[in-house]
Specification:
By secondary structure, chain A is an alpha+beta fold. Chain A has five helices and seven strands; from the N terminus they run H-H-H-E-E-H-E-E-H-E-E-E. Chain B has two domains: 56 residues, Arc Repressor Mutant, subunit A (Orthogonal Bundle); 74 residues, Alpha-Beta Plaits (2-Layer Sandwich). Chain B is 35% helix and 21% strand. Classes of the chains: A alpha+beta, B alpha+beta.
């Protein structure tokens, strides 16, 4: 599957309860799903099959450890943005998402002339050089589908086909949680 | 949707970059590498993980508990699709005149619907995520930000999201 489904499914009460119990994390104990089963008052088999079903339907992306990038030494990130051929965007976006250094990958609308980029891919690295290299790798992958625009040929203003925006400060950061 | 886990703050990245990296043991590295790919869904997942790396369930649990409490792991468990949780989201940006940057930061952050906000090196120098209960509310917040700041909002909601397989080996 290349893209994540866009339509929102209505959650069942049981799924809602499961999310409320686990959105801050899975208990790190011998039998984590037993603990959830007890709190939901259902069997552990039911919790395991509910987990698998939510995973298959994309409500759960994955069950995994998410490291703090900075603490592992991945201190640089860049939001790379690309102006690529719309007809090829899904195929190439999918390929960019598969690169191991990409943490988010989206198609977004353009607003010409001030914003001509339709593909966004966030890259992470340990050095400034590494994120520049990753940008280069993406560029190599996309070279056939990058759009060349020339808005004002009389002044020879050529719009760039790609860019990388690095963050220089976190101005606000909050977590997203389902409300009780 | 409720954006309440931490207070809003401005963090200077170049300052905080210097001393954040932590020293990790061999077992910690192994677990971080393995568990970024995922945890098996079974009754005793940590026993299964321990078997894969020739360790013990007890050692794995102790190690993960430590990594979690030291916040080397920011999350451990199911990662939910944000849209499935019932909210609406968009990414938006402003091109803020440099002299007004701090003031506009305050104006934008004052909206409780602003989840994340980053300064970036571009003409569009402020990038933020708007998280609301509904799509209609997104539009209202965008308009309210435009009125408050007097600046045009670049609103670029996702049209397609691609699966990623981010892996940060240690």
């Amino acid at each position: 599957m290349s893209t994540i489904t866009q339509e929102q499914e209505k959650l069942t009460d049981q799924e809602r309860q499961y999310i409320l119990l686990t959105q801050n994390g899975l208990p790190i104990i011998q039998e984590p799903y037993h603990a959830i089963a007890e709190q939901m008052d259902i069997s552990v088999e039911q919790v395991l099959s509910l987990t698998k079903s939510m995973q298959e339907r994309g409500i759960i992306r994955r069950i995994a450890a998410v490291p703090n990038h900075y603490k592992l030494g991945y201190q640089f990130n860049g939001m790379t943005v690309w102006d690529i051929d719309d007809g090829q965007a899904e195929k190439f976006g999918d390929a960019v998402g598969r690169l191991p250094f990409v943490s988010h990958c989206y198609l977004r609308p353009r607003f010409l002339p001030e914003w001509n980029y339709n593909l966004f891919a966030m890259v992470h690295g340990k050095t400034e050089e590494s994120i520049a290299k990753y940008r280069g790798q993406i560029k190599e992958l996309l070279k056939e589908v990058l759009v060349t625009r020339n808005h004002d040929s009389s002044q020879n203003i050529i719009t760039k086909s790609n860019d990388m925006l690095t963050s220089t400060a976190i101005l606000k950061k909050t977590g997203l949680r389902l409300k009780k | 949707m409720d954006n309440s886990s931490s207070p809003s703050k401005t963090e200077n990245l170049s300052k905080s970059r210097k001393c954040q990296t932590v020293e990790l043991s061999a077992l910690e590295k192994q677990l971080i590498n393995l568990l970024q790919h995922g945890l098996p869904v079974c009754e005793r997942p940590f026993a299964q993980i321990a078997e894969e790396i020739s360790s013990t369930e007890q050692a794995v649990i102790a190690c993960l508990t430590k990594l979690r409490s030291e916040k080397v792991l920011t999350r451990f468990g199911p990662m939910f699709d944000a849209a499935s949780l019932g909210g609406a989201f968009t990414l938006a940006a402003l091109a803020v005149p440099e002299a007004d940057f701090d003031f506009v930061t305050e104006q934008v952050n004052s909206f409780e619907q602003i989840a994340h906000n980053y300064r970036r090196d571009h003409d569009f120098n402020m990038w933020f995520v708007i998280a609301t209960e509904s799509t209609e509310e997104i539009e209202k917040v965008v308009q309210a930000i435009e009125i408050k700041t007097g600046l045009k909002v670049l609103n670029v909601p996702k049209l397609k999201e691609f699966y990623v397989s981010l892996y940060l080996p240690v």
